[in-house]
Design a protein that fits this description.
Helices cover 37% and strands 24% of the residues. It has 242 residues and is α/β, with parallel strands linked by helices. 37% of the residues are buried.
């Protein structure tokens, strides 16, 4: 049995206010965000291969980064689609060229560079044992639902809430199968916000694994500054033994 990561990084980063390059190529200490993400998967002993989904016009440059940073497990870089779900589908179809239906696929955002080895390991173990793995963190703030007038309606008990993050992991044949079904039905796959919601809609039971709170998605400038602070803190702890 093999484990493959499908990492999608096909966005343009409009909320980052970047003028010259997509957000996945913004650099910290001279290294692009996407490389930070790829390195964690590339160095994980249980990951056998990586399929990267990228903006078509940036694929050649991304291959240059793969070679520069010695990322040995990247099998292929494929162009993204018109939407996030289409981009994931392109990556899954490519993964199926190398791996079988029973192999495990971890679907991850290219701009979640603070993913860690332990969370990847827990995802793989959960799929082996139970068939699915959705990375979550506990909700730490009050969650409300507004009513039709815009006023606060239901206040949800946050102890019962979790935030779904990534990776989201499945048997390759299962997730590819539900994508094929969704694409044939009204609304297509784009009516689902993520892989977890699609799998649940088609009857799969989803099991969660606890991830670390710092595994954030770099979407806005403030996210980037949090990322920088976390990386600097990690480097300081290694240097000074904090």
């Amino acid at each position: 049995m093999s484990n493959v990561a499908v990492i999608f990084a096909g966005g343009t980063g409009q909320r980052m206010n970047t003028r010259t390059r997509p957000k996945q190529f913004l650099e910290l200490h001279g290294k692009p965000i996407i490389v930070y993400t790829l390195e964690v998967f590339d160095q994980h002993k249980e990951i056998d291969g990586i399929v990267l989904v990228m903006l078509d016009s940036w694929i050649e440059y991304t291959w240059e980064l793969v070679r520069k940073y010695g990322l040995r497990k990247v099998k292929k870089i494929v162009p993204g689609g018109a939407s996030g779900q289409e981009s994931i589908y392109n990556g899954l179809k490519c993964a199926a060229e190398f791996y079988g239906d029973e192999d495990i696929v971890l679907i991850h955002d290219g701009v979640r560079p603070l993913i860690d080895e332990e969370t990847i390991t827990k995802n793989i173990s959960s799929v082996k044992e139970r068939g699915t793995a959705i990375t979550v963190t506990a909700a730490i703030e009050t969650i409300t639902m507004k009513d039709e007038t815009g006023a606060v309606g239901t206040i949800i008990d946050r102890s019962q809430c979790q935030l779904a993050r990534a990776p989201q992991s499945f048997r390759l044949g299962h997730i590819l199968g539900v994508h094929d079904r969704a694409r044939q039905e009204e609304g297509g796959a784009d009516r689902f916000i993520d892989s977890a919601s699609m799998m649940k809609y088609y009857g799969y039971k989803l099991y969660t694994v606890e991830g670390k709170p710092e595994n954030i998605k770099i979407t806005t400038p403030s996210d980037y500054y949090i990322f920088r602070a976390m990386v600097d803190a990690r480097e300081s702890s290694q240097i000074f033994g904090i």
